[in-house]
Amino acid sequence: MVDTTTVTEMVAERRPPDLRRGLLGWLQANLFNTLLNGAVTLVTVALLAMVLWPVLQWAVFQADWLGNSREACSGEGACWVFISARFESIVYGFYPGAERWRVDLVFAALAILIAWLAIPRLPAKRWVGLFAMVAFPVIAFFLLVGGVFGLEQVPTGNWGGVMLTLTIATVGIVGSLPIGIVLALGRRSQMPLVRGFCVVFIEFWRGVPLITVLFMASVMLPLFVPSQVEFDKLLRALVGIMFFWSAYMAEVVRGGLQAIPSGQEEAAKAMGMGYWQRMGLIVLPQALKLVIPGIVNTFIALFKDTSLVLIIGLFDLLAIIRSGLTDSDWLGFATEGYVFAALVFWVFCFSMSRYSQHIERRLHTGHRN
Amino acid sequence: MNQATAARADSPMIEIAGLNKWYGDFHVLRDIDLTVARGERIVICGPSGSGKSTLIRCINHLEEHQEGRIVVNGMTMTRDVKRIEQIRRNVGMVFQHFNLFPHLSVLDNCCISQTWVQKKPRAEAERTAREILERVQIADQALKYPGQLSGGQQQRVAIARALCMQPEVMLFDEPTSALDPEMIKEVLDVMVELARDGMTMLCVTHEMGFAKTVADRVIFMDQGQIIEQAPPETFFNHPESERTQLFLSQILGH
């Protein structure tokens, strides 16, 4: 026999009990909740202090910041004068001094365009995006290369430093994503010829090391094409980098495409959408959102691997700093040089990473069905 | 069939003749002949694996058939992509798992094919969408995303999305099978409403109450064939074939 029970009054809603109040509460709950954890916390803090303190001493407190020659270096800590004295060449490479405003203009415009597209509140996204994708590359090309409108021609051999690194990275990123998307779609195509081409392309470029690609582009390619046809060395490297990374991008995007349930495409088909509409409006927006971490991962790897162009004699940020190390006036500042290069790379890569996390949160539209 | 729809039923909405389909070596649809008049409401039922979903998915070419002829609204189905897309614009479909686009708001789900396929101006598409969302009683959720809605609400949005294309015929592929029991009614109410307005409908469903209320004809399929078709009273009260009797006793008998 079961007794009947009925509730006559509903339980009122109330807030969860607050167990972790304030800094002390948090410390107790997270770092010192048991004797062992307390000990581990203390040891970790001690180790961190032992490592961090000397680094800070070297890099900040005992470092030399001011001056313009080797005499300014006291030798107690880092001598950042090495960087500031060569700052111009680190940023511009061998770009002629009088023409550097062109570089400034291009990268200032690039920064404004990226910021405009990244900040949601600013209007006219479509037009700015169109300008950034179509007009800007042309303008940037003629500004940097010159040779028209009375601008002095600057051979790409004179490009270098941060400017060259950013050029390669931007072209690589902007080029590899669309090519990668097309390759990913092609690899899933029903047409055997298209699919076959994409598979071969992806597997070829993914199967060779980037260094080989760069070598082939700079050393072997000229042997195969007639001598009167001359491609710019930087251009060849850019094409190589773009194809190489687009193969990786294709596989990242394909992963996203495969994760979209087939019902999505069926629903789009049932409403009479054609292939490109189904892909562009329904499948790709979801697939790309899903693989943002993978895409940004590839971007970051691409950005860092731009430093491999030093192998074919292009002076990117890292190569310019390395060349400074052999300057007889500045022997022995390798640590400062590499630390600075690492810092610059890290700032760019970390920004990309943070921005991608922000984008992921913004595009989140509740649970998937 | 009521008089108004019978009057303009000069040519059939859908004509299927000698339809055969195989998945590999497996013969899923066998010699299907089916004519659907304009305004007719048909319920298709049968055990799972009997080919009923495959049959209605052939009508808008989500599945390709190997033999036979399908004519929808006077257009014969071929393999030509343009023609298939044209036929699909007249055929609305509602899926078991809703298949709403999770990255678009409810309103955009309803507008996207109007603006891209029918090339309507955005304002006009939005007006149509809001009208139809009103009809399925979900207009207040227009700016939410599908992930924020209950299953019943999502399925009603899916019906609205299909109706926004102003289709001549609606296909329902088990529209209530994925829903929690308390949400089935709100979806069925919308479908009954739609049937009353004279929409031509083909519904694959196990909701026999729905079949009794609105169907002009109930079709029973088994092993890829149409075994029996009859008006609902005859179908439920005097089923002829043994397999139909067995099926009905299984789904109604508890």
Automatic annotation (TrEMBL), chain A:
<feature type="transmembrane region" description="Helical">
    <location>
        <begin position="281"/>
        <end position="302"/>
    </location>
</feature>
<feature type="transmembrane region" description="Helical">
    <location>
        <begin position="163"/>
        <end position="185"/>
    </location>
</feature>
<keyword id="KW-0812">Transmembrane</keyword>
<keyword id="KW-0813">Transport</keyword>
<dbReference type="GO" id="GO:0043190">
    <property type="term" value="C:ATP-binding cassette (ABC) transporter complex"/>
</dbReference>
<keyword id="KW-1133">Transmembrane helix</keyword>
<dbReference type="InterPro" id="IPR035906">
    <property type="entry name" value="MetI-like_sf"/>
</dbReference>
<keyword id="KW-0029">Amino-acid transport</keyword>
<feature type="domain" description="ABC transmembrane type-1">
    <location>
        <begin position="162"/>
        <end position="351"/>
    </location>
</feature>
<keyword id="KW-1003">Cell membrane</keyword>
<feature type="transmembrane region" description="Helical">
    <location>
        <begin position="197"/>
        <end position="225"/>
    </location>
</feature>
<dbReference type="GO" id="GO:0006865">
    <property type="term" value="P:amino acid transport"/>
</dbReference>
<feature type="transmembrane region" description="Helical">
    <location>
        <begin position="131"/>
        <end position="151"/>
    </location>
</feature>
<dbReference type="InterPro" id="IPR043429">
    <property type="entry name" value="ArtM/GltK/GlnP/TcyL/YhdX-like"/>
</dbReference>
<comment type="similarity">
    <text>Belongs to the binding-protein-dependent transport system permease family. HisMQ subfamily.</text>
</comment>
<dbReference type="InterPro" id="IPR010065">
    <property type="entry name" value="AA_ABC_transptr_permease_3TM"/>
</dbReference>
<dbReference type="GO" id="GO:0022857">
    <property type="term" value="F:transmembrane transporter activity"/>
</dbReference>
<keyword id="KW-0472">Membrane</keyword>
<feature type="transmembrane region" description="Helical">
    <location>
        <begin position="308"/>
        <end position="325"/>
    </location>
</feature>
<feature type="transmembrane region" description="Helical">
    <location>
        <begin position="337"/>
        <end position="355"/>
    </location>
</feature>
<dbReference type="Pfam" id="PF00528">
    <property type="entry name" value="BPD_transp_1"/>
</dbReference>
<protein>
    <submittedName>
        <fullName>Amino acid ABC transporter membrane protein 2 (PAAT family)</fullName>
    </submittedName>
</protein>
UniProtKB/TrEMBL annotation, chain B:
<dbReference type="GO" id="GO:0015424">
    <property type="term" value="F:ABC-type amino acid transporter activity"/>
</dbReference>
<dbReference type="GO" id="GO:0005886">
    <property type="term" value="C:plasma membrane"/>
</dbReference>
<dbReference type="InterPro" id="IPR003439">
    <property type="entry name" value="ABC_transporter-like_ATP-bd"/>
</dbReference>
<dbReference type="GO" id="GO:0016887">
    <property type="term" value="F:ATP hydrolysis activity"/>
</dbReference>
<dbReference type="InterPro" id="IPR030679">
    <property type="entry name" value="ABC_ATPase_HisP-typ"/>
</dbReference>
<keyword id="KW-0547">Nucleotide-binding</keyword>
<keyword id="KW-0813">Transport</keyword>
<dbReference type="InterPro" id="IPR027417">
    <property type="entry name" value="P-loop_NTPase"/>
</dbReference>
<dbReference type="GO" id="GO:0005524">
    <property type="term" value="F:ATP binding"/>
</dbReference>
<dbReference type="InterPro" id="IPR003593">
    <property type="entry name" value="AAA+_ATPase"/>
</dbReference>
<keyword id="KW-0067">ATP-binding</keyword>
<comment type="similarity">
    <text>Belongs to the ABC transporter superfamily.</text>
</comment>
<keyword id="KW-0029">Amino-acid transport</keyword>
<dbReference type="InterPro" id="IPR017871">
    <property type="entry name" value="ABC_transporter-like_CS"/>
</dbReference>
<feature type="domain" description="ABC transporter">
    <location>
        <begin position="14"/>
        <end position="248"/>
    </location>
</feature>
<dbReference type="Pfam" id="PF00005">
    <property type="entry name" value="ABC_tran"/>
</dbReference>
<protein>
    <submittedName>
        <fullName>General L-amino acid transport system ATP-binding protein</fullName>
    </submittedName>
</protein>
<dbReference type="InterPro" id="IPR050086">
    <property type="entry name" value="MetN_ABC_transporter-like"/>
</dbReference>
